[in-house]
Design brief:
single chain, Aspartate Aminotransferase, domain 2, 3 domains, 7-stranded mixed β-sheet, 4-stranded antiparallel β-sheet, globular, disordered N terminus
């Protein structure tokens, strides 16, 4: 609901609430304590995606891992995939309200929590999840660790599609299994699946489990419905259980549409889907993920292993935030996606015009950019040093698999001015090498 207010009331509210941009102008409307501001394209943003927040000394993994000189300079890291944007003001208010209650006791998944999640997926993705499919964990990485123990025997192979989110490798190996790589193919600037190889790998007697990243981190593919179906069909044919990490499902760009495994009835008994509010709403620190396993037998196997390992966990604050995030923050998500797309386009333009020779893979989803720097001819250690010399805190491609060498992953969910500043630091160290190689 939009409530009209006059300028005096607007200014009174703006100064009383630090969620407003200091540059916001009154246009006579306020909606959920949001302020309408103009974008350079003439549209309207009601939320602040331009303010840089200092996260030093808050226990941030991303910021605390940065070298001392980077921290001292207050430079923003572009590594671990959480955002440098303030959460939606509705989420802030929900967290404060929960804190003011004063008792933070043991918490379970009640109807209010589940219905908020269910209705969100109906609105945004057009499918309905069922309560009997559902459990919660404190993260997708621990959920995958439980799944490997539940669905694969020690010594067996687990298929992943590299380059891929690096914790997959650790989850597989630490539980006594082997990583089996079904390498993605980079063709004309876009990654594709190697289905012929996947069919051969799934036919192996020692392979009964596959983990797919959808949308894909780090290469930014949003798999088409045909691609998802083909993977599911191959796994079903060979008796390979298929797990989808769909944590980036809301972050799709340029008209691309996410297709969940849960929308294929034929895979009901042969899939597990992992989702979370953490990427979409920037609340990774609350540790809350939703896991869906439609097949009753598989669900019971997973729950038995989960109960041995850790049980299903939902914190008091995660519940409060999740209900509000899923019910009230659709407009914030819409604006965030617009900002991400704008940032990615700014990076593409910078690389194409000022770093000719390097190539940025066009992301269809996620807020991650995959930068191809192989033209420099550097080893992984040399590329790491180059980025260190530029005071850049990035994720180096080698950690995503052997076919990630020569790439860097950039988190573009930050104010654009900080992204451009990082690219300018890269330009200073890379341009001499590009000139040496005749790329520019």
């Amino acid at each position: 609901m939009i409530i009209p207010i006059n300028a005096a009331a607007f200014n009174s509210i703006r100064h009383a609430n630090n969620i407003f941009s200091p540059n916001a102008q009154n246009d006579g409307n306020i909606c959920y304590n949001r302020v309408r501001t103009r974008t350079k394209h003439g549209g309207e943003y009601m939320y602040d995606f331009t303010t840089t927040t200092d996260r030093r000394h808050t226990g941030s993994i991303k910021w605390d891992a940065a070298p001392a000189r980077v921290q001292e300079a207050g430079l923003t890291p572009l590594s671990i995939a959480d955002m440098e944007f303030q959460v939606a003001p509705q989420i802030k208010r929900a967290a404060v309200k929960a804190a003011e209650h004063g008792i933070y006791g043991y918490t379970h998944v009640d109807d209010e929590y589940f219905n908020a999640v269910k209705n969100y997926y109906i609105r945004h993705h057009g499918y309905e999840v069922q309560r009997e499919w559902h459990t919660v964990t404190n993260g997708i990485v621990p959920a995958l660790s439980v799944a490997v123990r539940a669905f694969a025997r020690e010594g067996e192979g687990v298929i992943v599609q590299s380059p891929v989110y690096y914790p997959f490798y650790n989850d597989i190996r630490k539980n006594g299994c082997k990583v089996v790589e079904n390498r993605l193919i980079l063709k004309n600037g876009r990654y594709e699946m190697n289905f012929e190889e996947l069919d051969r790998l799934c036919a192996r007697e020692d392979v009964h489990l596959m983990i797919i990243c959808s949308p894909h981190n780090p290469v930014g593919r949003v798999w088409t419905r045909e691609e998802v179906k083909r993977v599911g069909d191959i796994c079903l044919k060979h008796g390979v259980f298929l797990i989808a990490d769909e944590i980036h499902c809301d972050i799709t760009l340029g008209g691309h549409k996410h297709h969940s495994l849960l929308t294929f009835p034929e895979f009901t008994d042969n899939c597990m889907v992992c989702t979370a509010m953490s990427k979409t709403f920037n609340v990774a620190g609350l540790g809350c993920s939703d896991i869906f396993i439609p097949g009753k037998e598989r669900y019971e196997l997973y729950k038995a292993e989960q109960n041995r390992a850790m049980g299903d966990s939902l914190t008091y604050f995660a519940r409060a935030v999740a209900i509000t995030a899923h019910n009230e923050c659709d407009e914030w998500v819409k604006e965030m996606l617009s900002v991400i797309e704008d940032n990615l386009n700014a990076m593409y333009e910078f690389v194409d015009t000022r770093l000719k020779g390097l190539s940025c893979i066009r992301a269809e989803g996620t807020y991650l950019a995959w930068l191809d720097m192989r033209v420099l001819g550097l080893s992984d250690s040399e590329l790491t040093k180059l980025c260190d010399d530029a005071d850049l805190v990035l994720d180096m491609g080698e950690i995503f698999g052997t076919n990630g060498s020569g790439f860097t992953r950039w988190n573009v969910a930050l104010p654009k001015k900080d992204l451009i500043a990082a690219l300018e630091r890269l330009e200073k160290v890379v341009k001499p090498l590009l000139e040496k190689h005749g790329a520019i």
